[in-house]
Design a protein that fits this description.
The protein has about 600 residues and is α/β, with parallel strands linked by helices. Helices cover about 30% and strands about 25% of the residues. The protein has 16 helices and 24 strands. The strands form three sheets. The protein has an eight-stranded parallel barrel with strand order 1-2-3-4-5-6-7-8, surrounded by seven helices. Strands 14-15-13-9-12-11-10-16 form an eight-stranded mixed sheet. α4 links the parallel β3 and β4. The longest helix has 21 residues.
Length: about 600
């Protein structure tokens, strides 16, 4: 199986006109495209001109689609379908594409007769073969009578024509729960085309699921590595092609979407062992987090232990938690994260292969030559080995009262809605972090989606507002926060209040409800209530956490205590925190 397959993308994946889509696909490095008929019909370019344009861009047209509702129909409908097919064959000849996708019929004219379907597909393939063309028959998951790939293969085998084969689409197969292992029984030369799409697990009808919620490989829940390995194991030698219907992708910048799409295929190839690329670095933890502005870290028990040799940056530490304060940039934002990796050079090489090239940086004389890459939300990620970068800071000798904070537990970053799925893939492909389940919850000012990605000793949460309408957004827009770990959340909350930290007050209703839901002892509930400490638990352990008020426009801090093997992030309490932040901000206004 060791070869590097060609790559292709369906034009339906991308936004814009056909010219926009072709330019984006070529710029992202794709070898070819699947040309959707709607894109051709809406283009001012004729088929021959499109062929020349693709050639100029270095693209091949690998598939023309879709041809619908052909097989197992009465004679009069068949005659009309064959006339339609001949016209499509003319278009294909002008385009220079040799394979047409024929979807299993959803027409009310269709008859439940496999012999008839095979006979008519043989006739279609014979006409195509006379012109040097091929027919790839695909079982739609919602096909009227043929909706499984094994059924489609039985019909193709019964039709027995060299110009007729199957098209395998991962969504149509995996969304129905079909076992892909039977793919191994199909000869590779009879698999004419392979289409790949991931998807989240959604309890909905397969048709709208397919038309609106497909994702690129690595962004959803399907096991596309095993699926693709099964296909390549047959000897299939065609392209790995993406066919993704997604409402967000079809409205987003096509160039950015195409890069995201290519990253998904590069990552998939890596998971298949087809690329020589360093393994994902899987950071062991946070070397530092950088906050832009002037947050009151002293009140949180941090000491200003260093100042940068050449930049307006200060180093604040407590336990193993290190926060850089940068006074230049957007106030009240997280500007950068330092990630501890064993081999920064190998991590940089992998990032480049995964289409995340290093950012241009010019370190000062004698400063650590750190490599930085940009996450989809713009956060700079520095790849750090050991603590060499600490030598860039001159020690101050300052100390502070310790509040019991021991390190950075996780960092939460709000993602632009259009880039939420891209961010999941980026952190998985570039850093080797494993996505957790996606959670959606009703916040005071709209629905919010969140997903954790973690690995090694590093945790991130990625969040986005699903819908935002007009100017009515009184909650904190695009919030970011750093969560510090501690060994006793109640004691840390008391210490921070004594030092003057602005701990976020939680309404009494919360703890009254907590008592009803959990049955915690009164003494423990009183301690949580006194410190405005929130509580969650799962089958592995408990989670105690509290927040500060805003330190700027959108940054705040969290202090967390994990007891046992608790794996989550206290998402159930997020609406309470959001409402409390809104109330605190409103009460602070004159």
């Amino acid at each position: 199986m060791r070869r590097d397959p060609r790559t292709a993308i369906a034009t339906v994946c991308l936004s814009g006109t056909l010219d926009d889509k072709l330019a984006a696909a070529a710029a992202a490095g794709f070898d070819g495209v699947e040309l959707f008929e709607n894109d051709l019909v809406a283009s001012r370019r004729g088929p021959a001109e499109i062929r020349r344009r693709c050639a100029d861009l270095g693209l091949t047209v690998d598939l023309y689609q879709p041809f619908r509702d052909f097989e197992a129909v009465p004679p009069d409908v068949l005659a009309a379908n064959l006339r339609r097919a001949e016209r499509k064959f003319d278009v294909m000849a002008a385009l220079g594409v040799d394979t047409v996708l024929v979807c299993s019929s959803v027409s009310p004219d269709a008859i439940d007769d496999d012999d008839l379907a095979a006979e008519q597909l043989h006739l279609l393939a014979a006409r195509a073969g006379e012109r040097g063309l091929r027919v790839a028959y695909e079982a739609l998951a919602w096909g009227r009578y043929v909706h499984g790939y094994e059924h489609a293969w039985r019909i193709v085998r019964r039709a027995a024509h060299p110009a007729l084969g199957v098209c395998l689409d991962s969504f149509h197969i995996l969304s129905r729960g079909d076992d892909p292992r039977a793919i191994r029984a199909i000869p590779g030369d009879k698999i004419f085309f392979l289409q790949l799409a991931d998807a989240p697990t959604l309890p909905m009808d397969v048709l709208p699921w397919s038309r609106h919620h497909r994702l690129f490989p690595g962004q959803g829940d399907f096991d596309l590595t095993t699926f693709t390995r099964d296909v390549l194991g047959t000897g299939y030698d065609g392209p790995l092609s993406l066919e993704v219907f997604n409402d967000v992708f079809r409205q987003a910048d096509p160039h950015r979407t195409a890069v995201d799409a290519m990253r998904s295929l590069v990552s998939l190839k890596d998971s298949l062992g087809l690329l020589d690329v360093p393994a994902a670095p899987v950071p062991s933890g946070f070397a530092f987090a950088e906050v832009v502005g002037e947050p009151d870290l002293a009140a949180l028990g941090f000491a200003r232990t260093g100042v940068h040799r050449s930049k307006p940056v200060e180093l604040w530490t407590q336990g193993q938690a290190r926060v850089l304060v940068n006074t230049h940039g957007e106030p009240g934002s997280i500007g950068a994260l330092g990630l501890s990796v064993a081999d920064p050079a190998a991590a940089e090489q992998r990032a480049e292969v995964m289409l995340a090239p290093p950012l241009a940086r010019t370190p000062g004389p004698g400063e650590a030559p750190l490599t930085a890459i940009a996450a989809p939300d713009g956060t700079q990620l520095f790849l750090c080995a050991d603590d060499d970068w600490l030598a860039d800071f001159l020690p101050t000798g300052e100390t502070a009262a310790d509040a019991g904070l021991t390190g950075i537990d996780h960092v939460s970053l709000t993602q632009p809605f259009d880039n939420f799925d891209e961010a999941t893939l980026f952190h998985r492909a570039v850093l080797g972090l494993v996505p957790g389940p996606t959670a959606e919850f009703a916040a005071p000012f709209g629905l919010v989606r969140g997903r954790g990605v973690s690995g090694g000793g590093l945790r991130l949460t990625l969040d986005c507002a699903l819908v935002r309408r007009g100017g009515w957004a009184p909650a904190v827009e695009a919030p970011q926060h750093i969560a510090f770990s501690c060994t006793d959340a109640v004691a840390s909350a008391r210490a921070l209040r004594r030092s003057g930290a602005r701990v976020l007050d939680v309404p009494a209703n919360y703890h009254d409800d907590l008592a009803a839901r959990t049955g915690l002892p009164d003494e423990r509930l009183d301690a949580l209530r006194e410190g405005s400490v929130l509580y969650d638990r799962d089958e592995h352990g408990e989670y105690l956490h509290f927040y500060t008020e805003l330190a700027g426009a959108r940054v705040f801090f969290e202090v967390v205590q994990r007891i046992g093997g608790y794996r989550g992030f206290g998402v159930v309490n997020a609406p309470v925190r959001m409402a409390a932040h809104h109330e605190a901000r409103r009460s602070a206004q004159p």
